[in-house]
Amino acid sequence: MGTPGTKAQGGVDGALRAIPVLVVCGSIVAAATAYRAADTIGRAPARRTIATFDVRKSAVYVCPMDPDVRSNGPGTCRRCGMTLLAGIPDPVEFHLDLTTAPSPPQPLRTTTLEFSVHDPWKDRPVHDFVTVHEKLFHAFVVSQDLSYFNHGHPTLQGDGVFTFPVVLPTSGMFRVLGDFYPNGATPQLIAETLVVPGGDVPAPATLSRDYATKSDQNLRVSLTTLPEQAAAGTRTQMTFRIDPVEGFEKYLGAWGHMLAASDDLIDMMHLHPIRADGADVRFDVVFPRPHPYRVWVQFQRKGVVNTVHFDVPVEEAPK
């Protein structure tokens, strides 16, 4: 009963996005062979028949959120539940502008983040969005020292503008990740940098391995990884055990949500579980670089959202 999804974001002072693209070689043809043996003594065996499926002529249905989930027929994604689509548009990055009110923002006072979404062709405001995991827009705000984490859902005000009130705890740099899906396009994951002026700026985070069991509102969460030492560019299975499991339920349509960020906030990845089995929830993560990463996970039990974090050192992949 998994609801996974994987998206990766990397960039410095700008918006970068990595979106998998489905590529089909024009000459690939899959063949299926059927054979029926003779059922009468002395009768020649039935002719062997070949049924071919030509991917060049048949539609391939793809999940726009999890492009590795594909089918030869219509249906829904086995991970996130979205409708599989045929003929998904080529990935194109939309324009996301971030402003604040007041400007500049001030620490410990309510600041309204304003996200303006425009199309990449004529820079027109976008009016129609697809609901993903029960919301039109997911926003993540993380401080430079990684002590502040906020996963929220801006409200659409019209003309492609979303607003999200926050209280930023300190001066310094924050990274803001916007996750949205314009109708008729592809899902977008765009990061912006926000600076709060002031004199007392926290130092950047220094992370070391932290796999200790964590507790929040009404859950304890423990972590194991396979392999034990994560390596850049290779898959790491991260399994979180929920305790107690009684009352464990989906949060925003998924069995869990994860944000993984490198200690320098260059890499930010928003993921959902690949599988949930009883008390165990598994994410498959590919860390882009050899760097320490902080991993926030959110799980819901009896209507209460629990947020905990772990620190994962990532080494160079073996040669």
Brief overview:
The protein is an all-beta fold and 319 residues long. It is built from no helices and 25 strands. Among the domains are: 5-13 and 206-315, Sandwich (Immunoglobulin-like); 95-196, Sandwich (Immunoglobulin-like), CATH 2.60.40.1930.
Largest sheet: 7 strands, mixed
What is the first-to-last residue Cα distance? 36 Å
CATH superfamily of the domain at 5-13 and 206-315: Macroglobulin (MG2) domain
Task: Enumerate the spans where pLDDT stays under 50 for 5 or more consecutive residues.
Answer: 1-8, 10-57
- What's the CATH architecture name of the domain at 5-13 and 206-315? Sandwich
The number of helical segments is: 0
- Our estimate of the beta-strand percent is over 45%
Q: What characteristic shape results from the CA principal axes?
A: globular
Which structural class best describes the helix and strand composition? mainly beta
Helix content: under 10%
Identify the CATH class of the domain at 5-13 and 206-315.
Mainly Beta
Order of helices and strands: EEEEEEEEEEEEEEEEEEEEEEEEE
**Radius of gyration, rounded?**
23 Å
**For the residues shown, what is the average pLDDT?**
82
Annotated CATH topology of the domain at 5-13 and 206-315: Immunoglobulin-like
The total count of strands amounts to: 25
Please provide a written account of the structure.
It is a single chain. The protein is mainly β and 319 residues long. Among the domains are: 5-13 and 206-315, Macroglobulin (MG2) domain (Immunoglobulin-like, Sandwich); 95-196, Immunoglobulin-like, CATH 2.60.40.1930. It contains no helices and 25 strands. The strands form six sheets. Strands 1, 17, 19, 20, 21, 24 and 25 form a seven-stranded mixed β-sheet that branches. The radius of gyration is 23 Å and the shape is globular.
